[in-house]
Fold each of these.
Amino acid sequence: MIRPHLHARTLVWLAIAAALAVGCSGAPPRVVRFAAPKVEPDAARYARALRLAAEGRVKARAGLDADAAETLRRSYGLVPDLRVLIDHAEAAERAGSLGQAHAAWLEVLRHPLTPAQRKRAKAQADRLSTQV
């Protein structure tokens, strides 16, 4: 003899299995279409980089070095300007992001530099390499 509570439990499991079988059967395939990526004109990208650099420098003067470093990093990513990269390295170091500052100074060394700039960048990178 089947106990009534076992019979009810079995019916519940059968109902769940039937619902899953119906839910998993034959849904028509959907075609996913992506919009064409936006292409930003060079002038617009350059203007955005200038705005970010200015914003980063204002943040640095206000003592918001972590925010300044991030904003300057984003600006440099849009348009690789040496002065923005140096400002980023200095703000990152003041914010305590020594690894980021070290990487930035190494990136500075990949730019064409005057002998004085190269000497300073190398000294900064060497000094920070011992702290990272």
Amino acid sequence: MTTVKIKVNYHFYLHHEPTKTLIEKLTWTQMNSLCRTLRSGEWADWKVWVAELELWFDLTDLIQEILKRSDGLFRKPPVPKQGKDGRTMEHQLVDAPEDMRQHPRYEIKLPVMLDITGSLINTFTADISESGIRLKEEIPLRKEISHLFLYYRSGNSLIEFKSRPVMEGSSKLAFSRLQLISCNHIDLWRSLIKRAAQDSENLTE
């Protein structure tokens, strides 16, 4: 069996021999995730081109190394706790009205991190509501995107949001507002909003 040390900055090409299908330029995160979906009986059907090494490998020679490692992965995707029995997922949908401005907004500066297709950006909020966030600064994009991930650490808990950038004006390549789609700690987020509302009321008394 061939032994190769995989680095997280490598890029991979997967070739499915039975169908002559080539999946091009996978990142380590994508490669790791895809391999976890394959049954062991399918491993022999795949070959892997490691771009930085300029070598082909049988997937069977790399699969154990790939599956045992989690370093370099940005995040774990939400996994269903149960199938169709009504129990919630790790991510819960955020209740968003037709007009996000229906939810009260509170001016509060929170340090947050954006994950835009693997690029990490640290910034701050300007105001928050239960269904949306406005950032202190406008974030430029290299291409149009449908969603991104936003992270905020509250104590020992990391709140993760799947979010949709709200494009304003004619530009489709910059945004400062986000519509929240789902959240992994929705109750904690609501408690933060409730605390912000109480602080706002105290300031006006």
Amino acid sequence: MARPKKATAELASIEDANSALHALLMAEVELEKQQGAMDLARAKASADYEEPIDKQKARIADLTLQLQLWYMANYRTLEEGDLKSKKLHYGTVGRRLSHPALKPLTRAWTWAAIAVKIRSVYNARFFRAVDPEIDKELIRAELTEEQLATVGLKVKQDEDFYAKTDRTALGAGE
């Protein structure tokens, strides 16, 4: 666990606290200005590159399609032995099997219908069991402190400090 940081100054009066809260407000506003400027710069940079990137993506998709159509039209002459590819000067083109995936047999079979059928034939053999999860909200709402203690629980509530700034104060003094 990290050691708590030490404050750079010690507040001695309500005036000091008020000044510190004002400084906090001004720091938050300045941070938001800086983050806003950074977000604008990022958006501009993205906009500058978006069109050329989209053009290159479209070009890549078109060239890939061209190569696929050419390969599929000529695969019998290109493939040698068990190889389903052809090494060219700038790379390799070919075919490969995708990972096996289960798909519904026809459009009439939905995944819900498949689940019902699998359950009727194989029971729960092909269904994942979901680990039970403790409903902490329900426990806290329904059990007393003594009941909680018997199952090894207690309710703990910490008190945390907060400082909330008021943006309407900016127009009055600044």
